[in-house]
Design goal:
2 domains; five-stranded parallel β-sheet; 7 strands; globular; binds iron/sulfur cluster
Length: 261
């Protein structure tokens, strides 16, 4: 039985939208598209957008941001205990994003020291190494992107409202790029496009503008990193530069480690 039905107060399914450590990009996408959902759901909590927020159980909670601070983790555990479906929205929540990617280059304590100076020790006491939600709790749906694609968000929500786990495409960006009949910037312009190893969902935004994909949707299913390496090496790219692009969004650190060998 849904939380809404159990409460007996309202027949609409209930949703909550919460943020951890992130830039609020996903919260903005959800806010901009909320009018399309309002006939079908009751928004119980959305502190970013409304001042009146209720506690208690909900049917679906969308969570943006990585777990980068102790209070993020406490909040996430509370969210998990009070929601039927937990949806990680955005690259931070799904992969850890730039907060996690930065850990390839230096320790969190070094970054805090550089930014906060003499106040660093107080900040460091509450900081954690940035990690995606599923490092700490079970996640039902992962919707990546930086920011997420609004159509994907609405499709995922519609699916959950019908009690179905959504199918999220995880084919490479190249697929969408070819469907748009774009010239290939990797082949024709020798740009270091990560489209072959990046999950589709953005509609091949960057290559459609003549720019290389830098992987903001995270890796696709079974990314062919070795083949990507060979192509970029043949094009004369230094591995350090390519590794920097691959790890920028925190998703492919294990693959980056593989590249270092
Ligand atoms: S431009 Fe990039 S995304 Fe498009 S086909 Fe070429 S490698 Fe793939
Ligand atoms: S093309 Fe790549 S970098 Fe650009 S929006 Fe899509 S996934 Fe992100």
């Amino acid at each position: 039985m849904s939380a809404a039905a159990a409460s007996g107060t309202n027949h609409l399914p209930t949703i909550a939208v919460e943020g951890l450590t992130g830039c609020a990009g996903e919260l903005l996408v959800i806010l901009e598209n909320l009018d399309k959902l309002l006939p079908f759901v009751r928004v119980v909590r959305f502190p970013f957008a409304q001042s009146k927020n209720e506690g208690g159980a909900v049917d679906i909670t969308f969570v943006e941001g990585s777990v980068s601070q102790k209070h993020d983790l406490e909040k996430l555990k509370r969210i998990r205990a009070n929601t039927r479906w937990l949806v990680a929205v955005g690259n931070c929540a799904v992969w850890g994003c730039v907060q996690k990617g930065a850990l390839c280059k230096c320790k969190a304590s070094e970054m805090i020291e550089a930014v906060y100076g003499s106040a660093a020790s107080a900040i460091a006491a509450t900081a954690m190494d940035a990690a995606p939600l599923d490092s700490h709790v079970a996640v039902d749906v992962k919707l990546s992107g930086c920011p997420i694609n609004a159509s994907q968000f609405l499709a995922v929500t519609a699916s959950l409202l019908r009690d179905h786990l959504p199918y999220i495409i995880s084919k490479p960006v190249c697929l969408e790029c070819k469907l748009r009949e774009n010239p290939c910037v990797l082949i024709e312009d020798n740009l270091p496009c990560l489209g072959p190893v990046t999950a589709a969902g953005c509609g091949a935004l960057c290559p459609s503008m003549g720019a290389a994909c830098y992987g903001c949707f995270g890796p696709c299913e079974e990314p062919q990193i070795d083949a990507m390496t060979t192509i970029l090496k043949e094009k004369g790219y230094e591995m350090e530069e390519v590794l920097g692009r691959l790890t920028a969004f925190g998703a492919v650190i294990p693959m980056g480690e593989k590249w270092r060998k």
